Amino acid sequence: MSKLYTGAEIVFKCLEDQEVDFIFGYPGGAVLPIYDELKNHNTIKHILVRHEQGAGHAAEGYARSSGKPGVVLVTSGPGATNVVTALTDAYMDSVPLVCISGQVPTHLIGTDAFQECDTTGITRPCTKHNWLVKDIKDLSKTLHEAFRVATTGRPGPVLVDIPKDIQFAKIGYSKPKVEKRLNGKSLNHFSQKDIDTLISLMNKSKKPIIYSGGGVINSGPEASNVLRELVELTGFPITSTLQGLGAYPGDDNQFLGMLGMHGTYEANNAMHDCDLLINIGARFDDRITGKIDEFSPKSKKVHIDIDPSSINKIIKVDLALVGDVKEVLKGITKTLKKKNLDLKKSNKQQIAKWWEQIQKWRTKNSLHFKNSDETIKPQHAVQRLYELTKHKDTFVTTEVGQHQMWAAQHYKFNKPNRWMTSGGLGTMGYGLPAAVGVQIAHPKKLVIDIAGEASVLMTMQEMSTAVQYNLPIKIFILNNQYMGMVRQWQELLHEKNYSESYTEALPDFIKMAEAYGCKGIKAEKPDELDEKIREMVEFDGPVIFDCRVDPNENCFPMIPSGKPHNQMILGPSEKEENKITGKGKALV
Amino acid sequence: MANPKSAYSVSSKKEKSDTHIIVVWVDNEAGVLARVVGLFSGRGYNIESLAVAEVDAKKSISRITIVTTGTPQVIDQIKLQLKKLVPVHKVADFKRNDKGVIFKEMALFKVVGNNTKIKKAINACKKYDAVILDKTKKSNVIQITALRREIDKMAKNLRKFGLVSVSRTGAVAMTRGDKVFN
Prior knowledge:
The complex is a heterodimer.
Chain A: E1 4-6, H1 7-17, E2 22-25, H2 32-37, E3 45-48, H3 52-66, E4 70-74, H4 78-82, H5 84-92, E5 97-103, H6 119-123, E6 129-132, H7 139-151, E7 157-163, H8 164-168, E8 170-172, H9 192-204, E9 208-212, H10 214-218, H11 221-234, E10 238-240, E11 255-258, H12 265-273, E12 276-280, H13 286-289, E13 300-305, E14 319-322, H14 325-338, H15 343-362, H16 378-389, E15 395-398, H17 402-410, E16 419-420, H18 431-441, E17 447-452, H19 453-458, H20 463-468, E18 474-479, H21 484-493, H22 509-516, E19 519-523, H23 526-538, E20 543-548
Helix pairs in contact in A: 1-7, 3-5, 3-18, 9-14, 11-14, 12-15, 16-17, 16-23
Chain B: E1 18-27, H1 32-42, E2 49-56, E3 61-70, H2 72-84, E4 88-95, E5 101-112, H3 115-125, E6 131-135, E7 139-146, H4 148-157, E8 163-168, E9 172-175
Antiparallel strand pairs in B: 1-3, 1-4, 2-3, 5-7, 5-8, 5-9, 6-7
């Protein structure tokens, strides 16, 4: 008879078979058997967070920077409900997470037992799939299936809820063979004919643009390489969504910068005026499209995505290639090369005028801001941070708000998986725990959380985690004492009624850093900024950097809600004539 | 605000809504119906009726039949979103007016009254395969199988004959001929 293992042992056997190195978690009554087993498995390191939301975001940071699934372990009831925000965030941004939660023993389920909640019920709409394991026989199969679901197709979070009695129950373990239960959900649905159609569209186009997104990053580093090759082969201009930054080098001349609500003037105008739009692994999010009816009105639209439900969801497209970005792009470049179609040369004339137009838009210098000698402008702070850290292989996370957009605009990424930000859900408090996860995955690298003072206070407790594990994360706070984006919208939409967007009592971040056992640095004047940033980067340990910036700065350029791409506000002087009126006010 | 033009509204072009019957084959496991129904409520789709039961005990597969209305784009999304659910095997979609498909619903009517009234009620039901399931001096329980609108009509018409209670199922559907949906 084969050896019998407890449910808790089986959890670890599965994690070992899945080559898991780190678990982000927090113990509690319903997961004690699993925590008891932890000591016997030294290839798996547990990272103790200070709040389960932090565990979820740390696992997200780990997953996005390493390409491996993040693993979270929480207890029943509040443990599970606390992780819901992170699961939803991962679901919106397609991050592979496997969350294991404890549950009250099976005979107590449904009795309103202590720390009981309907975890699978609560997390059903915010996971790709979830399971309640009611029989020890199903445990190993379910856990392996969980990893498969989280990492295949469009990645996403899954949850496995394990009652405490199942963790104690005993059964034999055999490595389950990889079960193909795809239910017909295969990934690649494109044909050579589709690729040929696309190439003929590319040949005809006079004003093409490539719009790439997070799908390129999710498809792996090779997808970014093929994307670069495609852009090089075609000579087409390329723009990127917030999540796609880094897939194509941010400082390359063919790159127009980010598009969308706070994208560049040239990227948005090119989207509006183009005659061929090639969407690679993006989802026509509302922050990108602006007003749907006037979105890129003159273009043929092509959409490459692994998720069939993304096609025609928001924008009807002329050609859809459903498949893994890497595979589709490889198919395209291979065909281009085989046909010996040197698009760059033959198309050069054809799209030369288009590039001329793009250069004209570029001269608007839409990311421009008025710098000051008196106060630190937040854009200037991000630019200096970029200049002083770009020679290193730096990883950047952010919170959510103005600072996030300034980081996206002014920090340029050259490699995929270097930029971790909460896009879909827009979770304030994401960046600090995400930085913890990134640093775990890349212990020797420089990891910076570009933060706002309001966001960072939401998950500040994870500094304690960073100190415990000697994670030298740098929390670079652009401190304007306001919830900046809220204040900006109140200024533009609500007659400067700054209702509850000013934080009257902020902590002293220096003292706070010291209280946590890390270093605090404060910069108040532009002339001391560089020196202080260097001090932060050189310090071997976690740092909280309180960068006091101009509290009244707004994030421009901006497409006001309800407006199309070609009606951007470029700066403060323009906002009067381009006021958001009527129905636009009702939008988020 | 009435119908605000949203930056992320699907389209202001009004497309025609049609009634569709969506048939979903799923693994018969705990919570599977909640997943399907939750997808509809979470994404704001409409469910007019619902019928669900296991159809293959060996493979443990249930068949869910959902009647819904939506524009072609919404119906497409419903199908694609359903196909993403892990326990879903396949999804079929029929238009309500598809001649190649049979749709049926069943209803139970309890009629209470004197003999004449009950007789009239039974008569009225005759063309819908009426079956008397229970009979007392004062009451009858009549079963009919028909289309939704026919049952709607009967439920209204029988009121004058002493209808006191109605219970009805959702629609079930099957293709005509020897073809099987794969």
